[in-house]
Design a protein that fits this description.
This protein is α/β, with parallel strands linked by helices. It folds into three domains: 108 residues, Immunoglobulin-like (Sandwich); 49 residues; 308 residues, Glycosidases (TIM Barrel), CATH 3.20.20.80. 33% of the residues lie in helices and 23% in strands. The protein contains 13 helices and 20 strands. The strands form three sheets. Strands 12, 13, 14, 15, 16, 17, 18, 19 and 20 form a nine-stranded mixed β-sheet that branches. Strands 2, 5, 6, 9, 10 and 11 form a six-stranded mixed β-sheet that branches. Strands 1, 3, 4, 7 and 8 form a five-stranded mixed β-sheet that branches. The protein is globular, with a radius of gyration of 26 Å.
């Protein structure tokens, strides 16, 4: 039976309510909401309950809340009572992009009697579970090796037994992760897109090594579709026309194979390839290119990757290219590319393209936003709290925060995956003001604190949200502080 908290909250008047509970209690909240002492109708308002705990971490909840006239009833998530001490709680009301917040009340969380005591040997900690799992996996791997060495005597049942044991242990370890969705990172090809130069196997290995330290098991690649370098220069100079352009990818399929081979040496799997077209968008904006100039080449180069031997689950198209996807006359061509990619047994869709998926619902497998919220202009004076506040800012024109937009899309497309295909900030303090611009001015922070603050804010806001995966961009190689954040969120010991 949950402990019930009943409070009256006003958007215009302070209160001095102090409720109490024991640490780790299940809680329900019944709150009557007023404005200047008058009952406030909640019928058209989006409700969020947020709290600041005694350890300076936040809880944000906007699910499992029922509205009735001016009253809300909520089953609070466990995090509200997890930390002993005083927790400040407020209710945020949003209607037509306008926000109104109640004054806070206080929840005194009384510590558990066993808090700080030495744990009994009868209790098994999460750390012990992971350690035991590692020992058990090693044992099963030895059993598997024995089966392989005695292949003639091995039965189908032997292999099925081992596979079942491994799956059970993997699930048990995964359940100890605070953050459940898959976290993957983009492996940068290095070099220069405009000059068709690349990094080295050594530079890719440095990135991969930092991913492994952070507990990441999957990578992503961005592949640009663009003309040959000589073509690009001549086209921009007006020496050749659009129909004379010869198209290629950067990196090439061969170079992608090299990058994937390096990643596999570190036990990293290729999860997603994004087909991008930065040059095309630049030239379209300048009025030099139109869709018909490159649509066929785009389709053919995309299918070169889709039909390759690469083991990759997702292949997305027209990254952030909503000005093309939204045009009705382009619909059939783009739809045919989606259908062809799916026919090659890849999942597909448009990454970084908001509110255009309705045209293509039957042909996409997921909805894939990018989020680069502005965090702070304070540079080295930026705090962990600034990182959280930045992620609570608006993400779109209808007044959604990133979390609210993800929740709205999940409601709208219940049978589609949700992949946040890009978030990130470089190690430069200046980039916290506009992470997506990636200006990289000044001096990078040796420990990667700007990246850590950005990622910590994301995890604090999204930790209790159920979605498929999130991709880290602009963060390579990961440094000390972001690695700490990632290890904590993914339960790495």
């Amino acid at each position: 039976m949950a402990s019930k908290i009943v409070v009256n909250l006003d958007t215009s008047k302070e209160n001095y309510i102090v409720a109490k509970c024991k640490q780790n209690d299940d809680l329900t909240l019944e709150a009557n909401i007023f404005e200047n002492g008058e009952p406030l109708d909640l019928v058209n308002k989006e409700i969020t309950i947020q709290a600041l705990k005694a350890d300076n971490t936040y809880v944000i909840q906007n699910t499992d809340i029922v509205k009735e006239e001016n009253k809300i009833n909520a089953n609070l998530v466990k995090d509200f009572s997890r930390v002993p001490g005083t927790t400040k709680i407020e209710v945020v009301l949003v209607e037509s992009s306008k926000q109104n917040t109640t004054f806070s009340f206080y929840l005194e969380v009384v510590g558990s009697v066993i808090r700080g005591a030495i744990e009994s040997s009868d209790s098994i900690t999460a750390l012990e579970k992971v350690q035991d799992a590692a020992i058990e996996i090693k044992k099963i791997n030895q059993e598997t090796q024995t089966i392989v060495e005695n292949a003639g005597a091995a039965s189908k049942e032997d292999f099925n037994k081992v596979n079942t044991q491994l799956a059970d242990i993997t699930n048990n370890v995964a359940n100890n992760r605070p953050f459940k969705p898959k976290v993957y990172a983009y492996l940068s090809q290095g070099g220069s897109r405009s000059q068709d130069t690349y990094g080295t196997q050594e530079s890719w290995a440095i990135d991969c090594q930092s991913f492994v330290k952070a507990g990441i098991t999957d990578i992503a690649l961005s592949v640009q579709i663009q003309p040959l370098k000589a073509n690009r220069d001549d086209f921009i100079a007006g020496k050749i026309t659009a129909n004379q352009l010869e198209w290629k990818t950067y990196p090439t399929l061969g170079k992608v194979r090299e990058m994937v081979a390096v990643a596999k040496q570190f036990g990293l799997n290729l999860y997603i390839i994004k087909m991008q077209d930065t040059f095309i968008k630049e030239q379209e904006s300048a009025g030099r290119l139109k869709f018909s100039d490159y649509a066929t080449a785009y389709h053919n180069l995309t299918m070169e990757f889709a039909n390759s031997e690469l083991e990759v689950e997702w292949l997305t198209i027209y990254n952030e290219h909503w000005t093309v996807i939204n045009v009705e006359s382009n619909y059939e061509i783009i739809k045919n590319t989606l259908v062809a990619v799916k026919g090659a047994n890849r999942k597909t869709g448009f990454s970084g393209v908001p509110d255009v998926d309705d045209f293509y619902t039957d042909y996409i497998d997921g909805w894939m936003p990018h989020y680069y919220p502005s965090i702070s202009w304070k540079k080295q004076n930026t705090t962990w709290e600034d990182g959280i506040y930045g992620w609570l800012g608006l993400a779109n024109h209808i007044g959604d925060t990133p979390l609210e937009e993800v929740q709205r899309k999940k409601r709208k497309y219940p049978n589609k995956k949700v992949l946040i295909t890009e978030i990130g900030c470089s190690h430069y303090w200046e980039d916290l003001l506009a992470p997506a611009i990636y200006s990289s001015t000044g001096t990078p922070d040796e420990k990667g604190m700007p990246t850590a603050i950005f990622l910590n804010g994301f995890f604090e806001v999204f930790r209790n949200e159920d979605f498929d995966s999130v991709g880290l961009y602009y963060t390579n190689p990961l440094r000390e502080e972001p690695i700490k954040i990632l290890r904590k969120e993914m339960g790495v010991v």
